[in-house]
Amino acid sequence: MLQVMLWLPLAAGLLACLVARRLTGWVAAAGALGTLALAVGILIDFDSASAGVQHAVDEDWIPDLGVRYSLGVDGISIFLVLLTAVAWGAATFWSAIRMPERPKTYFLMMGIAETATLGAFLAQDLLLFVLFFDLMLIPFYFLFGSWGTEHPGRPGEGTIRPTSATIKMVIYTLVGSLLMLAGAIAAGVIAGEGTPVFSMEELRGGDALSESSQRWIFWFFAAAFLVKMPAFLVHGWMPDAYRVAPLAALAVFSAVLSKVGAYGFLRVVLPIFPDATLEFQEVLLVIALASILYGSVMAFTQTSARLVAGYSSVAQLGFITLGVFALRPDGADGAVLQMVNHGIVIVPLMLILVLLAERTGGDDITRMGGLAMRAPVLATLFLVVTMALLAMPGSANFIGEFYILNGVFQEKVVFALVASVAIAIAAYYALRLFQRAMHYRKRDDVESREIGWREGGIVGGLVACIVALAFYPGVVLERSDESVKEQLGAVSRSAPIAQSDDSHFRPQGNPE
Q1: pLDDT at residue number 120
Q2: pTM as predicted
């Protein structure tokens, strides 16, 4: 079942290239729906009491180099796999309804991208993980570059073209990916005795790597993950890419690919480089805090709705990184929940931005207004998404942030206090976006009309997921808790024995 789910999107994309043009989108959509059904089946069959890898596949691939075709899911990756299937299902159906230019190539790229992303979450071999991680970039190079649109830049910048924006994105991410590849090879060679070792399970605990080796390899991986998220100071590719990207493809890019970076910290860096994790904990916390504050401030100063969403993602990924490097189970549990929350919120937000742009002629929020006049359903759906984005009490986003802040408060009080300020800023930029679009006086060149039933079904289904998570966030927390404790266990074993109070490194239960 796991392998079928992994390769089905690619197979559907290839099949879509062979059928008649009018059927192309629906073949790809059927593949996305099948992938979603298999992801749900794997979740139903998942044993939440087990911390280990389930539905494992482990076969020789390149035995002379110690590389294995090793796949599986644990409590951390299971909901990220499901998030991937949900996000791609929504974006693929949306694209099938609207039928982009050159649809056969478009849906093939979407299928390759989904398979690569699923592979990154499923890989249990370090080189296999790097392979899928790098493969994710290729289809989005074509999706952004070929189906993107030119966008006016800031004063003095001129027009931003899809090709230049995409090349900037590739340069940033490729540098990080090459560093991670070098780090993975170094880790496998140093850990192996004659034959390299790339099994994540065998590398767990850091016993095979000296502390000095962990230090520099840690930063090779950190660079790749921080660029992918993106984090403060390495986010330079994000504004231009978000301006020009086609919104349906941008929805899955923003919702899922950024989470691969955060997942990599929790699934790869913490258990394999525990000594370096402890040494550089505060550095990563500072980067996370800078991302939160910078992303939040930039989000409420933007007039482009795309960039409001983009900078809000920088802030949210900062929160997630803060939870991971609190090195406490409650913080890491909150980080996993927040990965799912942000992904399931950003997809309907991006799709709603498509509708807003159609009614106003662009994404400039200063030119919007009055769109709720004849569109109560659209306004209601947008309101639910906005409340989730600002982490309204009662939403799953609020629970995720509570868990993160609870973990950070017990570990680093000052960091938690400063991060709390960003929650108030998030409320401002989220409400500003909603009010500018839905209320105020309607301009003469703005059209207020209701969302169509097909688009409404897609956005409504995603909003239903947001509401369901708000009622029962435990569906994620209960299944991730054991796996989170196992990842943090390697760090706790590396904590200095002489430390007077090392209880904060020991896995502890979630707060009631």
Answers
A1: 95
A2: 0.92
